[in-house]
Specification:
431 residues; seven-stranded mixed sheet; four-stranded mixed sheet; 2 domains; alpha/beta
Length: 431
């Protein structure tokens, strides 16, 4: 096993050279500098390791959210090479690879869904809303505080918005999520009897026009790693059925084995009306999927969900191979097994004054950094922890006060243990 190896100064001179070239060239977002942590320029990866431009080696608990089979997986490489040697794109026409992948994704959803492919998670979320409107004949949506559904206009309207996003589009109602540690209603689970679900009636009646097409929910809020209490998702589903509202599950972060089942909603015995998948579907290549339950196909067929690169043969062929590897290598079950290892490794952080929630499912975990006096999440502290982790040789995403830990599903146990030991040591020192 290779241990991470990082020079004292980050970013190194070769990374800084690329950063300098990007100034005035690359627009906004994380470019030309990574605004979350340090502006390190990454060059290549192998399995659960990545190297930057200066030769520093890191254990990757970050990029593997989208590359859940790790970097440079040989079988994925061969699938991509074969696809590159074949047809380039078929736009809105079928290829054999579309049908093959659709069959695999349908099986992953429980064999009761029809599938259409898109290019990105946000695009798929938007398409899911098209389908919901066509099926229901309604046009409003309910989403939740703390959610993240993408960066196109309607997807942003489901979540928190920044001034440069403009105004929220009409017809979007945002409500409190089942965040039990900081309950919006000041109640405690289970005596609350899911007040956060029952209160939806008031939001619909007071804010909307009663024309709610769908409730759009992350079964686990991925960015904050916010896990709702037992029974929440099934209670929410029952509420939607009673009110004649569709349930749309955004499983872009939780799906495809990340949480120990192909879909997080399967842990709860729930079959959403619409499911959205993305991120790791093709292990880093841009492809996403919308799944519409068979019972809604007559309405869904009204939607012309065309997309230039959705169903691209290259991405479909690679994604199909990734789905095969998940099954052949038993990686979905392995994610469930690694959950206990990760939980035990992070347990020593429970006594730190600057640490709040420590929880997760499968290979999706979060360590919350908080202000020791107020108990509120501290994005500043979290950013400082993430930066120090990079100096120690581990990459984690930080956002909103949550340090996110998302190892590859096939990460070697010894690499996972070594990385988690660095996380624990660093967090204890900083918090």
């Amino acid at each position: 096993m290779q241990m991470p190896n990082v020079d004292a100064v980050l970013p190194g001179p070769r990374s800084e050279e690329i950063n300098g070239k990007s100034d005035g060239l690359c627009l906004g977002g994380v470019y030309p500098r990574n605004r979350s942590n340090m502006p390190v320029v990454f060059e290549h990866g192998d399995g659960s390791y990545v190297w930057d431009r200066d030769g520093n080696c890191f254990i990757d608990f970050c990029f593997t959210l989208t590359a859940s089979l790790g970097h440079g997986e040989p079988r994925v490489q061969r699938a991509a090479q074969d696809a590159f040697a074949s047809i380039a794109n078929t736009s809105n026409y079928l290829s054999p690879y579309v049908v093959q992948l659709a069959s695999q994704v349908r099986k992953a959803g429980g064999s009761r869904y029809a599938v259409q492919f898109f290019s990105s998670g946000a695009e798929a979320v938007e398409a899911g809303m098209w389908f919901a409107r066509a099926i229901s004949g309604k046009d409003e949506f309910i989403s939740f505080f703390g959610s993240n559904h993408g960066k196109t206009q309607a997807a942003i309207s489901l979540a928190s918005m920044k001034p440069w996003h403009g105004k929220r589009a009409p017809g979007f109602i945002r409500v409190p999520y089942a965040s039990c540690r900081r309950c919006f209603y000041g109640l405690s689970y289970p005596s609350c009897q899911y007040r956060c679900v029952a209160a939806l009636d008031q939001f619909i009646d007071q804010i909307g026009t009663g024309q709610v097409a769908a409730v759009v929910v992350e079964p686990i809020q991925g960015t904050r790693v916010e896990i709702p209490p037992a029974g929440y998702l099934s209670t929410l589903t029952s509420y939607c059925r009673r009110r004649g509202i569709l349930l749309m599950a955004d499983e872009i972060m939780t799906g495809l084995g990340r949480c120990g089942k192909m879909l997080e909603s399967q842990w709860h015995g729930v079959e959403p009306d619409i499911v959205v998948l993305g991120k790791s579907l093709a292990n880093g290549l841009p492809i996403s999927a919308v799944l519409v339950h068979d019972q809604h196909l007559s309405g869904a067929r009204e939607v012309v969900g065309s997309t230039t690169f959705g169903g691209n043969p290259l991405c479909c062929r690679v994604a199909s191979r990734c789905m095969e590897i998940l099954e052949q290598d038993g990686l979905v079950g392995r994610a469930a097994e690694l959950e206990q290892l990760i939980a035990e490794a992070l347990q020593p952080l429970g006594d730190r004054p600057g640490v709040g929630r420590i929880h997760g499912r499968g290979c999706l975990w979060g360590v919350e950094c908080i202000d020791a006096d107020s108990g509120d999440p501290s994005p500043t502290l979290c950013k400082r922890v993430a930066e120090q982790l990079m100096r120690e040789g581990v990459i984690c995403f930080s956002g909103g006060g949550m340090l996110q830990i998302t190892p590859a599903l096939n990460v070697p146990r010894e690499v996972l243990v070594a990385g988690l030991e660095i996380v624990v040591r660093t967090v204890r020192r900083c918090c």
